[in-house]
Each structure stands twice: as structure tokens, then as C-alpha cells.
Amino acid sequence: MSPEAPDDESNQSLWFVVAAPLCWAAHFLVSYATVAVWCERYAGRDGSLYQARVAVAAYTAAALGGIGLIALAAWRRYQHGGGTEAFDADTPLGRHRFIGSATLLLSALSAVATAYSALTVVFIRDCH
Q: What's the pTM?
């Protein structure tokens, strides 16, 4: 593989672009489901969210770690070939770099969304 050309395009997938938003969506779903089940089954209406908050913190750390790894891979893809060619060119390298830049931006957006959905358990301390 030369520095000017990415791997064969037939081996690349567009699932890479949506990987970070899927991490955020999984975090959102699991976090809210955990708190809902915790409040309904274990804590009761006026119970504490402490253990559910710890679980959401762990989910948040895992999601942000995964999003960070995806962003790192996207940055490497964006910088492929020295980063000198425009990423909007209709060439295999241009498409490769465009996917990297789009994934990097979606990773940043997903990290912010993950942090905002985790903030709910910071401000809400009980099930009431």
C-alpha cells in the first residue's frame, strides 16, 4: 500500500461512520433503562439513585472510551497520505479522507451527546 492510495475500497465499510453515534445511542438506551428499572424495582419512588448513578458513570466511561477510539481511527484515516490532498476530491484517497473527517466530526458530536445524557444523573439525585 503506497501512502497516496488507501486500501482497496471494496474492503471498507460505511458502518465506520455510524459507529460513534451507535455508541451514544447504546449509552442512552442502557443508561435510561438502568435508572428506570432501578427506580421501579429496587429504590422505590423516594429512593436514592446512588447505585444507578455509579452504573451510569461506568457506562459513560465505556462509551466515551469507545468513541475516543473511533475518533482516533477516524483521525488516522483523515490524515492518510500526509493530509495534503483535499478530502472533497473524487479520488479513492479523497473519499477515504472524507469518511475520516465525517467520522471524526460525528465522534465529537457523539461525545458531547453522551456527556449531556450522563448529566441527568448528576442533577437528579433520587427517583422522585
A: 0.84
